[in-house]
Amino acid sequence: QVRLVESGGGLVQAGGSLRLSCVASGTIFSINAMAWYRQAPGKQRELVAAITRSGATNYADSVKGRFTISRDNAKNTVFLQMNNLEPADTAVYYCGAAANPWAWGQGTQVTVSS
């Protein structure tokens, strides 16, 4: 199985930046793609950004132009660079891995103050 550990969350003012990291371990050869999801209080978990093993990416419309997902395959790590943060970005951010079975990290809180 795949184990994921996120880091990098915190409290930031609107307009600020944060960089999230997610390190994968275990059966990492089974991972095809990795993604970041987020879940705000009272809302469903939603896809923020995803990246395939070859580097193809896709983003939620709400974060396009502000967030960048990248991965370092040699270090089994995926990153989410978040710029120009807005209060609406406040949520718990989860790393996910398209493995068999799908794997989730424990989540990291991102809070953006206005």
Short description:
0% of the residues lie in helices and 55% in strands.
Beta strand %: over 45%
Low-confidence stretches: none
The biggest beta sheet is recorded as: 7 strands, mixed
What Rg is obtained from the alpha carbons, in whole angstroms? 13 Å
The shape, in one word, is globular
Number of helices: 0
Features:
mainly beta, 114 residues, four-stranded antiparallel sheet
Description:
The protein has 114 residues and is an all-beta fold. 0% of the residues lie in helices and 55% in strands. Strands 2, 4, 5, 6, 9, 10 and 11 form a seven-stranded mixed beta sheet that branches. Strands 1-3-8-7 form a four-stranded antiparallel beta sheet, with no helix packed on it. The mean pLDDT is 95.
Question: How is this fold's topology laid out?
Answer:
Blueprint: E1 2-7, E2 10-13, E3 18-26, E4 33-39, E5 46-52, E6 57-59, E7 67-72, E8 77-82, E9 91-97, E10 103-104, E11 108-113
Parallel strand pairs: 2-11
Antiparallel strand pairs: 1-3, 3-8, 4-5, 4-9, 5-6, 7-8, 9-10, 9-11
